[in-house]
């Protein structure tokens, strides 16, 4: 671009090099990358939900039970409540981060983690019952995707719980260093994201399954 | 939940037995001996010259984006060679096994390769060329150039960058390993269901294919996150969106494609994996599986993937053509829009890969039309390049030759792509050689741009230009090979020859198949010229040393620092005032590289953890292929443990002291000012070059610097 042909440049008035350049904001760079990661994971879920749509035809039941016969609304309700309470607790933990209270952050996170474990326990009971009745992923194409989505989501919860454990240890050791803070923020994104995804799971897997 | 396997299995070694080592196959045995000798030579030489420390410190543990990029390119080149040998075998087999009377050898009835072996070869060829040759080469070049072009000192996440490299490498290594342990898939690089399901492909081949693919998915997705974050977050002050170099724009658009499409492939392959390992029924023929689901998921990735490959190539052309036309790029804004239009449209065309698979006519028409829409932005790009050259001062140096070849191939490939896009046409030649020739035009376009980009940016990374003589021989033999191999293929496709044949029943096709073999001979010679090109360049490197601005007429930020680029890229972060900043500075006579008053520079520290994670991921994949559960679990646990341990590491950064920066800058300046008269002295000579060329198309005006390049100037 030759802006220069029309415009006279005074070299002494120009900034050509940055002195004492502070670099880029580490925390915002890290969280931005985490958003990108979540976009990829959202795509994974999108593909899985699309597969659910494809495999929800009567043909795909292959003689196995339809969703309405296996979905237990009580468990689904319990999972929803625990997961959302867990996210709420994590939210309080982040409020405590603003005031720099270590106890508040660790406390909120601990509650959040416990609720995550409760969520997993409920999910395990639910699936355990189904498995015990012989309702397993191998039964039909529909059940394959049904369990895959539930288990994939539950795996994220496992990761989140482990991550919280790690963060509690890191807060105890380092306090709120830049590294710890960006990880706490990313973990918040991660945890909220799981709740958002749960809304989709609930809608597409449970509600739609009950209706269909 | 685990499936029942055919054949033996034991807890210690899984399915692995001695019979799985194909030592009785002379071709594989020869390959093994070749690889072993090469390995011994390389490892031996490293030991003999005491270079292990160097290799470990400078390469294996590095987080420097330039070195990671170079390693990506090396992986890409090695895999390109492997893919080329595969191609050679397919073409020779098809030149021999024509008609019932054709001879057979080495256990094959016709030709010298059994159908099972041919199947593995074309599958490996496709997979390797797409995800282990083209992708690493492109990602490697983006890795090197993008941070330089936006005036950054590194990528946004250097550690993740190294991890992406080692995961991709692990995938490539797994494909190589399948040569000597077990076998590879033999049903085509994109797989078919239910053919790739366990009952029909009970061997380990499909598992190798699947896990190698998955590793590359992980590596590429991480790379795309990194490049996008780098471009969005790390641009130098003053570099607004519309000042961004066009290659950076292309990288952004291409990585957005990767970011959104690779996860879908992960699902496509992951569900296949569940079918094969856990006995689910996603793609099975009965039990409520859906065969089309795989095709859709795969090609929802597959088509964006081809644009993921081509957009960086377009970006490279858009850098090379202005430099060697000595003009600014024509239609910058339209180029940006076109890149994103291509990226966007690429999401809505996947069905054209299976027009013949029972979609309703209106569905086919829809995808037919969307496919043709891609031609519009692509056409815009072609015209922009042509107008860039129009009335420019075109210099036919090697990078430019490659870019022009790429342009030509784009025309041929694009036109034939349009022909494929008519569903009615495609019904006639789907899965035929016409399609194969079409996409090879496209893929060779990518190869041509990559070679052009390597020629173009090589001096930036290594400090000397590649010589031109052998390089031109290489170029022209590549041109010859491409013509002789692929023009007959278009004809064969029209004549009805289908792809992936191990035996050709029609002797009428023989002349064409023999002509393609001549083309392969040209390619072989080209490879030899390439080796000579590299060898002579390395030998004569002192003669070809260059300064910061190797070509004299280049336009972007990457030419504003020394060649080779110091570890910290820029001693001072540049402040960007214009689009084509470097050309702008040269035009205005302010092209000195800054010196004096250096500051400490903060950089990430080397770490071996990405390498170990890569090795473990390879172990994990290997264990899963052979179903050695204890090993898989061990690798997985170790990976998780390593990641957690690394997160506790507080000592991840280091500072390059100002004194060291000064020493490096001084050495770069003095080193290049000595031996080479023209275009050698940093800053000064660059300005001299642009003075000589003043009055030409792009860079004009008075461009003499009043002060020596290194005089400290405080702005
Ligand atoms: C003008 C743009 C293009 C159009 C209209 C187009 C059209 C098509 C169509 C319709 C097919 C399917 C033919 C069949 O299987 O029967 C196809 C296949 C293919 N195209 Fe293109 N294409 C275009 C650009 C590209 C580019 C840029 C690339 C690569 C960088 C590419 C690579 C491929 C590959 C790899 C296949 C075949 C994959 C396989 O079957 O193994 N195409 N193209
Ligand atoms: Cu396509």
TrEMBL record, chain A:
The keyword Membrane applies. Pfam families: COX3. PROSITE patterns: COX3. Its main location: membrane. Residues 32-210 form the Heme-copper oxidase subunit III family profile domain. GO terms for cellular component: plasma membrane. GO terms for biological process: aerobic electron transport chain. Keywords: Cell membrane, Membrane, Transmembrane, Transmembrane helix. InterPro entries: Cyt_c/ubiquinol_Oxase_su3 (IPR024791), Cyt_c_oxidase-like_su3 (IPR000298), Cyt_c_oxidase_su3-like_sf (IPR035973), Cyt_c_oxidase_su3_a-hlx (IPR013833). GO terms for molecular function: cytochrome-c oxidase activity. It is found in: Cell membrane. The keyword Nuclease does not apply. The chain crosses the membrane at residues 34-54, 74-92, 104-125, 145-168, 189-207. It is a multi-pass membrane protein. PANTHER family: CYTOCHROME BO(3) UBIQUINOL OXIDASE SUBUNIT 3 (PTHR11403:SF2), CYTOCHROME C OXIDASE SUBUNIT III (PTHR11403). Belongs to the cytochrome c oxidase subunit 3 family. This is Cytochrome O ubiquinol oxidase. It comes from Acidithiobacillus sulfuriphilus.
UniProtKB/TrEMBL annotation, chain B:
It comes from the Bacteria. Keywords: Cell membrane, Copper, Electron transport, Heme, Iron, Membrane, Metal-binding, Respiratory chain, Transmembrane, Transmembrane helix, Transport. GO terms for cellular component: plasma membrane. SUPFAM superfamilies: Cytochrome c oxidase subunit I-like. Residues 50-577 form the Cytochrome oxidase subunit I profile domain. The chain crosses the membrane at residues 27-47, 68-85, 122-146, 158-181, 208-232, 244-272, 297-317, 329-350, 365-387, 399-423, 435-458, 470-492, 512-536, 607-624, 630-648. Residues 692-715 are annotated as: Disordered. GO terms for biological process: aerobic respiration; electron transport coupled proton transport; respiratory electron transport chain. InterPro entries: Cyt_c_oxase-like_su1_dom, Cyt_c_oxase-like_su1_sf, Cyt_C_Oxase_1, Cyt_c_Oxase_su1_BS. One of its GO terms (molecular function) is heme binding. Its main location: membrane. It is found in: Cell membrane. It is a multi-pass membrane protein. Pfam families: COX1. Belongs to the heme-copper respiratory oxidase family. This is Cytochrome o ubiquinol oxidase subunit I. It comes from Acidithiobacillus sulfuriphilus. The lineage of its organism: Bacteria, Pseudomonadati, Pseudomonadota, Acidithiobacillia, Acidithiobacillales.
């Amino acid at each position: 671009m030759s802006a220069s042909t029309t415009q006279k440049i005074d070299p002494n008035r120009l900034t050509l090099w940055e002195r004492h350049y502070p670099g880029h904001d580490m925390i915002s760079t890290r969280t931005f990358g985490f958003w990108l990661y979540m976009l990829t994971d959202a795509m994974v879920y999108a593909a899985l939900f699309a597969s659910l749509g494809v495999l929800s035809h009567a043909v795909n039941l292959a003689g196995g039970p339809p969703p309405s016969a296996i979905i237990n609304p009580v468990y689904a309700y319990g999972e929803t409540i625990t997961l959302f309470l867990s996210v709420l607790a994590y939210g309080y933990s982040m409020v405590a981060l603003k005031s720099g209270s270590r106890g508040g952050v660790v406390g909120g996170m601990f509650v959040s983690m416990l609720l995550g474990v409760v969520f997993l326990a409920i999910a395990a009971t639910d699936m355990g019952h189904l498995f015990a009745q012989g309702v397993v992923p191998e039964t039909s194409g529909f059940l394959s995707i049904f369990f895959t989505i539930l288990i994939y989501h539950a795996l994220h919860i496992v990761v989140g719980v482990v991550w919280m454990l790690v963060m509690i240890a890191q807060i105890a050791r380092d306090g709120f260093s830049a590294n710890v803070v960006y990880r706490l923020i990313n973990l918040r994104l991660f945890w909220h994201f799981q709740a958002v995804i749960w809304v989709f799971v609930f809608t597409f897997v449970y509600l739609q399954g009950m209706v269909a | 939940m685990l499936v029942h396997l055919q054949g033996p299995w034991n807890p210690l070694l899984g399915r692995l037995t001695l019979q799985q080592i194909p030592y009785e196959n002379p071709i594989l045995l020869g390959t093994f001996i070749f690889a072993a000798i090469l390995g011994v030579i390389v490892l031996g030489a490293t030991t003999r010259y005491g270079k292990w420390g160097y290799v470990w410190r400078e390469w294996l543990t590095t987080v420097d984006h330039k070195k990671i990029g170079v390693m990506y390119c090396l992986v890409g080149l090695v895999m390109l060679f492997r893919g080329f040998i595969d191609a050679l075998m397919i073409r020779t087999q098809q030149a021999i096994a024509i008609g019932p009377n054709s001879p057979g050898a080495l256990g094959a009835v016709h030709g010298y390769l059994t159908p099972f072996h041919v199947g593995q070869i074309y599958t490996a060829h496709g997979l390797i060329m797409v995800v282990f040759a083209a992708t690493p080469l492109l990602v490697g070049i983006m890795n090197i150039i993008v941070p330089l072009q936006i005036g950054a000192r590194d990528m946004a996440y250097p550690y993740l960058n190294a991890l992406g490299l080692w995961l991709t490498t692990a995938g490539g290594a797994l494909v190589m390993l399948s040569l000597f342990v077990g076998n590879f898939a033999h049903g085509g690089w994109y797989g078919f269901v239910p053919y790739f399901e366990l009952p029909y492909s009970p061997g380990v081949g499909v598992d190798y294919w699947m896990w190698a693919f998955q590793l590359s998915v992980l590596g590429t997705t991480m790379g795309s996150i990194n490049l996008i974050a780098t471009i969005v977050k790390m641009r130098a002050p003053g570099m607004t969106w519309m000042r961004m170099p066009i290659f950076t724009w292309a990288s952004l658009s291409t990585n957005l494609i990767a970011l959104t499409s690779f996860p879908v492939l992960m699902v496509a392959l992951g569900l296949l994996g569940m079918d094969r390992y856990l006995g689910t029924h996603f793609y099975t023929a009965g039990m409520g599986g859906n065969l089309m689901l795989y095709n859709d998921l795969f090609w929802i990735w597959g088509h964006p993937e081809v644009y993921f490959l081509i957009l960086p190539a377009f970006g490279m052309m858009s850098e090379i053509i202005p430099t060697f036309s000595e003009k600014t790029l024509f239609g910058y804004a339209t180029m940006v829009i076109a890149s994103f239009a291509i990226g966007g449209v690429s999401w809505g065309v996947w069905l054209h890969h299976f027009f013949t698979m029972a979609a309703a006519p209106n569905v086919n028409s829809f995808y037919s039309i969307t496919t043709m829409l891609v031609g519009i932005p692509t056409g815009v790009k072609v015209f922009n390049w042509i107008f860039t050259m129009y009335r420019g001062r075109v210099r036919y140096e090697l990078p430019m030759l490659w870019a022009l070849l790429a342009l030509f191939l784009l025309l041929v490939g694009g036109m034939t792509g349009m022909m494929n896009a008519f569903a009615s046409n495609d019904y006639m030649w789907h899965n035929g050689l016409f399609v194969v020739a079409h996409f090879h035009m496209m893929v060779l376009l990518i190869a041509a741009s990559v070679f052009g980009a390597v020629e173009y940016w090589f001096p930036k990374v290594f400090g000397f230009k590649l010589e031109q003589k052998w390089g031109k021989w290489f170029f022209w033999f590549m041109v010859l090979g491409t013509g002789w191999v692929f023009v007959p293929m278009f004809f064969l496709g029209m004549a009805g020859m289908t792809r992936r044949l191990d035996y050709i029943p029609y002797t009428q096709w023989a002349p064409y198949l023999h002509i393609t073999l001549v083309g392969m001979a040209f390619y072989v010679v080209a490879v030899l010229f390439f080796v000579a090109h590299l060898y002579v360049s390395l030998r004569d490197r002192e003669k070809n040393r260059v300064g910061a601005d190797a070509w004299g007429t280049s336009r972007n930020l990457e030419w504003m620092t020394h060649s080779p680029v110091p570890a910290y890229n820029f001693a001072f972060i540049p402040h960007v005032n214009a689009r084509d900043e470097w050309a702008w500075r040269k035009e205005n006579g302010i092209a000195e590289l800054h010196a004096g008053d250096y500051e400490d520079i903060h950089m990430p520290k080397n770490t071996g953890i990405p390498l170990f994670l890569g090795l473990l991921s390879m172990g994990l994949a290997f264990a899963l292929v052979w179903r050695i559960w204890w090993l898989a679990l061990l690798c997985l646990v170790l990976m998780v443990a390593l990641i957690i341990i690394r997160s506790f590491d507080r000592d991840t950064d280091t500072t390059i002291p100002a004194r060291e920066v000064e020493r490096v800058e001084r050495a770069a300046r003095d080193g290049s000012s000595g031996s080479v008269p023209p275009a050698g002295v940093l800053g000064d000579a660059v300005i001299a070059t642009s003075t000589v060329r003043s009055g030409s198309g792009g860079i004009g005006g008075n461009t003499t610097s009043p002060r020596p390049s290194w005089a400290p100037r405080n702005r």
